[in-house]
Amino acid sequence: MKKVIENKFLNEKIIYHKLKVGLDLYILPKPGYSQQFAIYATRYGSNDSQFVPLGQEESIRVPDGIAHFLEHKLFEEEEGNVFAEYSKLGAQPNAFTNFNMTAYHFTSTGNFYECLDVLMGFVGRPYFTEENVEKEKGIIAQEIRMYEDNPYWRVYFNLLRGMYHDYPVRNDIAGTVESIYKIDKETLYECYRTFYHPSNMVLFVAGDVDVDKVIKQANDVFVRQPVKRATEEIKRIFPEEREGVSQTRVDEKLAVSRPMFALGFKDQDKTDGGDKLLDKLIANEIILDMLVGKSSDIYNDLYEEGFVDSTFSSNYTGERGYGHAIMSGQSSDPEKVATLLYDEIERRKCQPWEQEYFDRIKKKKIGEYIRLLNSLDSTSIQFVSMLFRDINLFDYYERIQTMTYDRVIEEFKQLYDKNYSCLSLVLPRE
Amino acid sequence: MRDIIIKELGKNIKLHVIPDEKFKTVYISYCFHRGLDEDYTYNALVPAVLKRGCKGYENQKKIGEFLEEQFGSRFNTGIQKKGERQILRFTMDLVNESYVGKDGLLAQAFYFLNRIITKPVQEGSGFRKDYVSQEKENLKNMIQAMINDKMQYSMERCIQEMCKEEKYARYVYGSVEELNSLDPDRLYAVYQDMLATSPLDIFVVGDVDVEKVEMLIKNSLDLDRAQTKLIPDTIIKKVGIKQREVIEEMDVSQAKLNIGFRTNTSFNHAEYFPLVLYTSILGGGPHSKLFINVREKSSLAYYAFARLEKFKGLMLIGSGIDQKHYHQALKIIMEQIKDMEEGKISDSEFTAATNAIITSLKVAKDDPGQLVDYYLGNAVAGADYSIDDFIDHIRNVALEDVIEVSKRVKADTVYLLSPKEGDS
Q1: Distance from CA of B5 to the nearest CA of A (A)
Q2: Which percentage of chain A shows pLDDT scores above 70?
Q3: Hey, are the CB atoms on B302 and A368 less than 8 Å from each other?
Q4: Is the same domain home to B195 and B263?
Q5: Per the structure, how many domains does chain B have?
Q6: How confident is the model at residue A315, as a pLDDT?
Q7: Which residues of chain B have pLDDT under 70?
Q8: Looking at chain B, which residue has its C-alpha nearest residue A106?
């Protein structure tokens, strides 16, 4: 059965269809676009480091970085490498792994249906050998080294390690050079069997495509490569995260021109997903704009005093079971910046923003949402990432209009507590 | 997609409109061309100071409030290097008014950009002094921050070493020494010179009416000028090319190997199209010789690529490796270059590269920013290929043309950013 999700005002619609094997398929028709974009993603990321493997009783703890390692290895086929097949068709393939998902995607400007076959084919066909697993370790080790030298990346991951005691979000997505050397073929297959069943996955397609043909094409893949019906729920084990932050301050020295900082606030109010989480995301985006956005008092004060520059930015992350707000940038005096930000937060708790400011930021958010829909890849990735949190991205437009000032103020007072914050710094080496 | 429409507005101002109804935004960019001359640091500072405020929107807070009110229009100013030229850019990206039910967004965007460009907040006969001193510090920090991104830093250093006798070595954001002895009067004079003499291209992409756009610009743009300056052509170095090695040490865990080549070919040459294919076969993605041989076969690197600097006639190779594999990686890379010269290019490599280039060109049609970047390239080089023309030229390249062009590619500088002795 096809279901149509529509936003008439923005002239957009999405067609949803659930395949017999349990795969959720979404199609966003985009007439006039030269490219087609497809993303095939599984609810499996670096956070899923402890789980009960399919068909077993006992849970296992797998080496850090294995989800990302698996992503690299799926591109390998018995006859060689998937890149060659894509190249013949002229498509640009890629993949990524984050804390909560692994995704394989391509951009094509022709041969779309053949490319879709390649995508679904190789993701459904693992081929791990001792030899090809060993070979990948050198490549991923260099990827990890590259990130070790990247201060923007370090200041962020150090902050997560500072904020969280137990939750796996404190570990680097790619793992460490030590942890990836513990990965073997058997464990990779175990992770694959547990997390890569179509019923745990989503396929999202955007572009000027034929909806029925996409559905048929996707169904046919599972005729050629049959999968057993999913019989059990995946059992993931997450540690109970302790109260408060693990460290209030994390420093690292690197070859940088001047200090970088990231100030994080850990959210104590955990949400499991759905509309409640969507509202939380919207509320927090509005808060950050009013608190430290480009027209805020504190941003302009800090800027004019020379404490921050245009590299200053902020964002809120809200996932199932955890969330945090981060303000980051470069400064010659990051401790002073942190102090002034804490002061501003306390001041705003007593003297909240004007309603007018709130209304203006809502307009800004609506504009940002409309702009997102220009880009096929950003829309698709965002849609899938929201879906994994039981959120329909198309609801954003309506939820932002109904968001209230009081809800935003309540969220602000709840989240921004100095006792739940951590300051991460990357400092220049002498 | 309908083609680009180009109109002369007089006084060396060119309007480029790409009307396309699929876009939900309108992207506007004013691009002033300046030579990469002794004023290069001043050129970089001008857009940063202008961004701070203008008559009616005297500071960033007021600008921020205005943009929020316009449904989050994005506004930015900046500087780019295209060959031996700097482009000073003033960009606005706004939601198409038909999606938010508010008239006048487009008109206000043009009026706002005009104010930013032509009506800065003044103090005496120059810019506001605190804006200049603050932006001077910010620019200095930005120049020094080059070191933070090691991939970009090593590439930039390779170019600086390779072109040290040429203008092209100048860093896009200017130099710290120049900033330390900044003359505010000269800064204001450079700004006035930009208004009076710099060729200007205005790009507009979105679901717009060309006549309306032209009228809105004519009604808002307040530029009084007569004669504009010619910018000298970028010099393509052809003789005296010798391979040399530069090694620099830093506290890093991964070594970065960069190799700069002279291609003796720029965007305006007929040989440019085979050169684009050459570069793609060599290092333009997962189909390429570098990816397959440096990464997949030898596991030496996570990334290894080749790209062109199309206006200066350079090709640059970059890779992140373990220090102890330096000579091995360099040897493998140079073997690929030699194989290309000897015509060891398979049909599948050739086809994969052709397809990859065509795909990226077609994908650019779906992104307003990429469209402007492509057509700005035309404006810089004085070329006139639509994206479809470019695709046709790529399709017409034969394998022999690629082998022929490979003879023009000469290694110049091998640059290694190396971890310090004794470090991991």
Answers
A1: 19
A2: 100
A3: no
A4: no
A5: 2
A6: 98
A7: 1-2, 422-424
A8: B359
Residue A261 is given by DSSP the state: E
Q: Look up the CATH architecture of domain A249-428.
A: 2-Layer Sandwich (3.30)
Q: What is the pLDDT of residues A57-114, one digit of tens each?
A: 999 999 999 999 999 999 999 988 899 999 999 999 999 999 999 999 999 999 999 9
A178 touches chain B (CB under 8 A): no
pLDDT digits (tens, 9 = 90+) for A170-205: 999 999 999 999 999 999 999 999 999 999 999 999
Task: For residues B353 and B394, state if they share a domain.
Answer: yes
CA distances from B36 to A106, A372, B321, B382 (A): 39, 35, 33, 17
B228 within a domain of the structure (yes/no): no
Residue B381 CB neighbours (<10 A) = 20
Whether residue A57 lies in the annotated active site: no
Question: A387-423: per-residue pLDDT in tens?
Answer: 999 999 999 999 999 999 999 999 999 999 999 999 9
- Whether B24 and B95 map to the same domain: the answer is yes
| Residues of B with Cβ-Cβ distance to A364 under 8 angstroms | 67-68, 71-72
Determine the distance from the C-alpha atom of residue A112 to the mean position of all C-alpha atoms in its chain, rounded to a whole number: 26
- Chain B positions in Cβ-Cβ contact with residue A294 (cut-off 8 Å): 60, 63-64, 67
Candidates A12, A58, A71, A186; catalytic one: A71
DSSP string, B58-99: -SHHHHHHHHHHTTS-EEEEEEEE-SSEEEEEEEEEEE-GGG
Topology annotation, domain A2-236: Cytochrome Bc1 Complex; Chain A, domain 1 (3.30.830)
pLDDT of amino acid B296: 92
Minimum CA–CA partner of B370 in chain A: A375
* Gap between the Cα atoms of B180 and A306, Å rounded: 17
Q: Nearest Cα to B412, choosing from B225, B264, B200, B261? A: B261
> Which residues span the domain enclosing B131?
5-220
Structure tokens at B388: 């479809």
Whether A249-428 and A2-236 are alike in CATH topology: the answer is yes
Could you tell me if B298 and B197 lie in one domain? no
Query: Which A positions 212-241 lie with beta carbon below 8 A of chain B?
Result: none
Tell me, what's the ipTM? 0.95
